[in-house]
Amino acid sequence: MLATTLKKRRIDLHLTQQAVADQLHTSRQTISNWENGKNYPDVPMLVAISNLYDLSLDDMLKQDTNYLNKVANDYQLINQQKKTHLLDYALLLTLSGLVIIILPTIFFKSLVNEQLTGLLVLVFTTILVILSYFKTVQFYSKQPRNKQSLLIPKVVGIGLTINPNHPIGQIIWLFILIFVVGSLLTVIF
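Below the sequence we write its predicted structure tokens.
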């Protein structure tokens, strides 16, 4: 275990927790927490500890499955956050595109092709519905079917929306998508 390895090596080197803390530019309490297994050093700090204690990272970590699991979970959370941000950017771009399409119709009515504007609004609306579905699914974790509400608070803003994890909610979201795509297809053809 990493905590045991760190404590044993510090004692073998005849160093106090304060001496190690001073060399690593951290607090004595932090060193104590690492040695008691209350928390773990981050990767850059592990490299510094490895240099200070003259231990390889492999020797420090290979026996501590808790630390390896924590690192794996942290990377999973980071990747999940990246996906969340990507979806947020896509929603922002879609909404911006919709505003850019609609603004000329307000200020320059005579110069705007209504059919083209309608088509573009429907295309962006379709994309917006799809992205909104994925954002809502992502925001609300799945629960057992018998404990899910059909209406849930909106991810953004005030009000309620349809729970895409609820069986009836999935059907309603599908009908909304079919309606929007159907409207788009009638304009195209």
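DSSP finds eight helices and two strands in the chain.
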